[in-house]
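re: ur question from earlier - yeah i can do the single chain one, its not a big deal. heres the input i used so u can compare w yours
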Amino acid sequence: MYAALLIQVVISAGTYLAAKRAMTELPPLTVVLWRFFLSGLVFVVLLLVLPGPKLPPRDAWRRIFILGLLAGPVNQVFFFSGLARSTAAHGALLYALTPLGVYLLSLARGQERASARTLLGIATAFVGVVVLLLGRGLADARGSMLGDVLILGAVLAWVVYTTEGKPFVAVHGPLRATAWCMTMSTVLMLPFAPFVANTDKLMAASTTAKGCIVYLGLLTSVVAYVLWYYALSKVSASKVAIFSNLQPAATALAAWLLLDESLHWEIAVGGVLVLAGVRLTQTVVARAPPTAPLPPVAGRPAT
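and the output i got, formated as tokens:
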């Protein structure tokens, strides 16, 4: 499970770089649309070749619609539109709020019990992200207020997608649950196609920009999403969400390797703090939320 999450972190770290690169040549919604077209096609093929039901049961359609809406039109449209107006550093900082949002929503829904160690781990990891991003120029980065608000909307959508997806994946499994949700996301993106497809611009784009869309469609939307739900099927949502705070460190290393960006001491200190926060959260012993006592049965004393 941890290996799956680490792979997911590496893929997600590259998402920031690929998205920014693709949007230097194509509008944000065009990138999002073709990304989902590609991932939707892959998931449809997987559903056709996998044994078992191809379509979800009737009682699951409403939840699939909500999860698909959150993962597609809401999360990705907000994220790409915000990233086009803001900076990758701002985006990474706002996404570092994901574990806290998931933890609080899980508490509100009764999926987890309050834990001081979990809260300390989340806070430690968030401080680590702030320190790390300061080393990458967060203090000097300028992003529009609108861009940051849109990214925050994407974060909130991902928080709900993660928390609401936990019981769904427990019933249907990570691969089938992800396939149904992401196929729904693709269907919900179809009404935008006549307005944002920009086929001519896509054909005229460089090979690098097209490769970035393939990266987003296959690795981010297929592999990373499946791994995220796979992890959710194994442990609590807060233990999974905390791994998203490793993404800025992975992004910094990727930028150093691929873009020749310099490494600063803040990146090392921030990375250590993030790892410490992740470790604290993972050592919390899972306890079921409190349940109401059973009603007394005739002939048996109440407990």
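The longest helix spans residues 145-172. not sure if urs matches, ping me
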